[in-house]
Amino acid sequence: MACDLCSAPGGQLLWQDDLLRVVYVDEPGFEGYCRVVWHQHVAEMTDLDKAARAHCMRVVFVVEAALRERLQPDKINLASLGNITPHLHWHVIPRFRDDSHFPQAIWGARQRALRESHAGRLPQLLAGDLASQLE
User: Kindly report the CA angle at 105 between 101 and 110, in degrees rounded to 5?
Assistant: First the structure.
């Protein structure tokens, strides 16, 4: 079975190291949506050793903190689903009370019109934030 996250970055590359990458997902109405993608094709966190799991979660938390600082969302959703793409990745999604799906998951039923995006230079700014925290 072909894997989308093995054959493509999964978004605009913001930061990476030898083990994983952080990408910005261009999803209309969900500014700041990022993924933390493990490079190696594994399906679950428990496929990683303890140090790798800790590294992955440290990066997820740094991404969360950077998004909170930049966007001041009402909530951050963290999810590692992999139901459709069984390649270890975390979704880090800033949520706002006026976003199109709040309080439902972004994959759920739309509750209102799409929120206007003000992302602009956000991916570039986030890349700098991540570099300063992770390197």
Answer: 30
